[in-house]
Amino acid sequence: xxxxxxxxxxxxxxxxxxxxxxxxxxxxxxxxxxxxxxxxxxxxxxxxxxxxxxxxxxxxxxxxxxxxxxxxxxxxxxxxxxxxxxxxxxxxxxxxxxxxxxxxxxxxxxxxxxxxxxxxxxxxxxxxxxxxxxxxxxxxxxxxxxxxxxxxxxxxxxxxxxxxxxxxxxxxxxxxxxxxxxxxxxxxxxxxxxxxxxxxxxxxxxxxxxxxxxxxxxxxxxxxxxxxxxxxxxxxxxxxxxxxxxxxxxxxxxxxxxxxxxxxxxxxxxxxxxxxxxxxxxxxxxxxxxxxxxxxxxxxxxxxxxxxxxxxxxxxxxxxxxxxxxxxxxxxxxxxxxxxxxxxxxxxxxxxxxxxxxxxxxxxxxxxxx
Amino acid sequence: xxxxxxxxxxxxxxxxxxxxxxxxxxxxxxxxxxxxxxxxxxxxxxxxxxxxxxxxxxxxxxxxxxxxxxxxxxxxxxxxxxxxxxxxxxxxxxxxxxxxxxxxxxxxxxxxxxxxxxxxxxxxxxxxxxxxxxxxxxxxxxxxxxxxxxxxxxxxxxxxxxxxxxxxxxxxxxxxxxxxxxxxxxxxxxxxxxxxxxxxxxxxxxxxxxxxxxxxxxxxxxxxxxxxxxxxxxxxxxxxxxxxxxxxxxxxxxxxxxxxxxxxxxxxxxxxxxxxxxxxxxxxxxxxxxxxxxxxxxxxxxxxxxxxxxxxxxxxxxxxxxxxxxxxxxxxxxxxxxxxxxxxxxxxxxxxxxxxxxxxxxxxxxxxxxxxxxxxxxxxxxxxxxxxxxxxx
Lengths: 370, 393
Ligand SMILES: Cc1cc2nc3c(=O)[nH]c(=O)nc-3n(C[C@H](O)[C@H](O)[C@H](O)COP(=O)(O)OP(=O)(O)OC[C@H]3O[C@@H](n4cnc5c(N)ncnc54)[C@H](O)[C@@H]3O)c2cc1C
Ligand SMILES: Cc1cc2nc3c(=O)[nH]c(=O)nc-3n(C[C@H](O)[C@H](O)[C@H](O)COP(=O)(O)OP(=O)(O)OC[C@H]3O[C@@H](n4cnc5c(N)ncnc54)[C@H](O)[C@@H]3O)c2cc1C
Prior knowledge:
Chain A is α+β, with helices and mostly antiparallel strands.
C-alpha cells in the first residue's frame, strides 16, 4: 500500500521550518539578509546548523529527497536566501555521492556545522542546460591536479569557502566520459571570482581557474552520473521550493482580494478574479500532489526512474509557478509591481527557478526520450 | 499583403529614411535596438528633431501642427521609425493631454499648451490614479476647492509615470461629492513647479524608477487651468482613455522584440528546436493578426467609416503580445538571465558583460512588462468594457 504520510521526524522538521519562517523570517528579515555583504546572513546560517537543517539530505535520519523537499518548501515560502541549495543540496551531496575520502567527510561535517560554506560550480558560459558541456580542464602533474577554465552562475560562489567543480580530465566538450569532480579552495591560488547579485536578490559568481590546484573527488573521468544525480536533486529541490513560493503567493492574493476594494466591493467578489484564483489553487495543489507522490523516486537507484520523476515534477511545477506568479501580480494590480511589496519578489524567484536545472522544454524533451 | 503605395508614398518613405539616418541619434537607436530602455533626453532629442521637419505630432489636426497625411502615410511613418529603432512618441503630452486641449480647451489654453508640446519643450505626466482609486478611477478623492480665482488642491496621486521629469501634470480632481461619483470630477492642468507638490519615487520590482507618488498639499492652481466645465472632467478623461488604449498596439516594438528573440535563440542554439521554433512562429503570427487589425482600422478610417469594434481589443492583444515576447526572451536566454546588472543598462557602460551581451535587460524587461496588463485600464477592465458596450451584456 502506498504511504504518503510523513513520519514523526518529518513532521517535526516541517514544523521547525514553518515556525522559523513564520516567526523569524519576515519580508524585512529577508531584505536584511539580502543587504548583507555576502547576500545572506552567516548568523542565521549558524542557526540553521543548530536546528539540524544543514545535515538534511545527508545524514541518516533525514537523508532522503522528501526530507530536503520539506525544508525547501518552508524556505521557499519565506523567501529564504541563505544558501542551503548550493551548499548542502548540491555541493555537500556531490562530495557524499562521489566519495571524497576522509577529507570529504570532514568537509561535509564542517558544512553541516555551518562553519564551511560550499558551492557547486557546474555551469559554463555556453553550457546552457547541458551538464556534459564542460570545457574546464584538469590536468595532473605529479600527484596533484590543476584546473583551467571558467564556470559561470555559481550560486553564492563569492562566499563559498570551497567549491566542488566539474572539469574534464579527458574527452571533448560534450562527452559524458571524461568528466571529473574536484574540490577547490575558494580563496586558493589561481581562483578569481567575479561576483554579482542575481535577479532574484541572491548572489552568484563567475569563476576563472588558472592552474588552480584541485583535489579529485571519486574516480577520474567517471563523474557524469554523480553530476547528473546532483543536478536532478537540485531540480527536485527547487520544485519543492516552488510549492512554498506558490502557496505564499496564493495566500497573499486571496487575502488581498478580500481587503482591496474597488467599485464599492472587495475585488475578490469579481467572478473573473475568483476563477483565476481557483486556477492558481488548482495549479498549486496539482504540483503538491505530484511532488508528494514522486519526490521519493529521486532517491531511486535506477537513474531512469529518477529522471522521469524529476522531469515530470519540474514541468508541472514550472508551469504552475508561471501561472501563479504572473496571476498573483496581475490580480494585485499596481501594488505587486513595487519593490516594497513581497509578491513581486516571490514572482521573481519563481521566474529564476524556471531557468535552472533544465526548463520546461528541456525536461519535456528528456521525459519523451526516456 | 495588399497595400498599394503611390509614387508619392514611396518618395515620402525615402525622405523619411534619409531623415532618420541623418538626424536620429545613433546612441538612442542602438539602445532601442538592444532593448536597453531610453531616457528623457532620447525622447526629447528625437521629438525636437522631428519638430524641425513638422513631423513631431503627425496625427494632430493640421491647424495645431499635425500633418495632412493619408492613413497609409501614417502607417509608413510608424513602420519606418519603428523598424529603424527610433524613440517612440512621448506619450503624455502629444498623445494624451493634447487631444483633450484641442478638443475641450479654450483658445488661450490651446495657445499656451499645444506649441510647447509640439516643440518638445515641456514634459507632461498623467495624474489620474490614487492609492484607493485604481480600476475604480471615478472614486478618486484628491480634492480641489475654489478659492477666488484659484483651485486649492489636496490629495495624493500615485503610479505617476515620469512625474520626476514632468514640467506639467494633468489631474483629475474632485470638486463635488454630490450625485454620481463621475459627476463631481474636474480636469485641471497643473504646473509642477507650483508650491506644495512633493514627489516620492516608487521603485518597481526590477529596480527601476519610473513611477512616483505625487502629493498635493494646498497647491494653488489658477481656475483658468481648468479644462472645460467644472464637474465635467470625467467626460474629458474618458475621451483621453480612448486615445490611450488605441495607442497600445505596439507593433513596431513587437517586431523589434521578435528580431531580438531570433538573435538570442540563434546564439543559444535553440532556433532549430522544434518546440521553440513553433512558439516563435506562433508569436509572429499573433503579431501579424494584431497588425491586420490595425490595418483594417486604418482602411475603414481612410474610407471615412467609423472604426468598428476592433479598436476595443487592441490594448488587450497588444499587451498580451508584449508580455509573450518578454517571456519567450526569458526562455531563449535560459540560465544566463540570472545576473542582475542594472549598470549594464545604463548609458556609457562598457565593462565586460556578464554572460552573453544581450542578457542583461531580459529579466528586468520580463518583470517590468507585467505592468502593461495592469495600467491604462487593466485588461480585466477592458474586457468588462467590451462585454458591456460591444456585446451588450
Ligand atoms: C451530458 C449532460 C449530463 C447531465 N447530467 C445531469 C444529471 O445526471 N443530473 C442533473 O441534475 N443534471 C445533469 N445535467 C445538467 C447540468 O447539471 C446542467 O446542464 C448544468 O447545471 C448547467 O445548467 P444549464 O445547462 O441550464 O446551463 P446554464 O445554467 O444556463 O448555464 C449556461 C452557461 O452559463 C454558465 N453559468 C451559469 N451560471 C453561472 C454563474 N453563476 N457564474 C458563471 N457562469 C455561469 C454555465 O457555466 C454555462 O456555461 C447534465 C448535463 C449534460 C450536458
Ligand atoms: C508601471 C505603472 C505605471 C502607471 N502609470 C500611471 C500614470 O502615469 N498615471 C496614472 O494615473 N496611473 C498610472 N498607473 C496606474 C494604473 O492605471 C493602475 O494601476 C490601474 O488602473 C489599476 O489600478 P490598481 O493598481 O489600483 O489595481 P486595482 O484596481 O486594485 O485592481 C486589482 C485587480 O483587480 C482587478 N479588478 C478591479 N476591478 C475589477 C472589476 N470590476 N472586474 C474584474 N477585475 C477587476 C484588476 O484588473 C486587477 O487585476 C500606472 C500603473 C503602473 C503599474
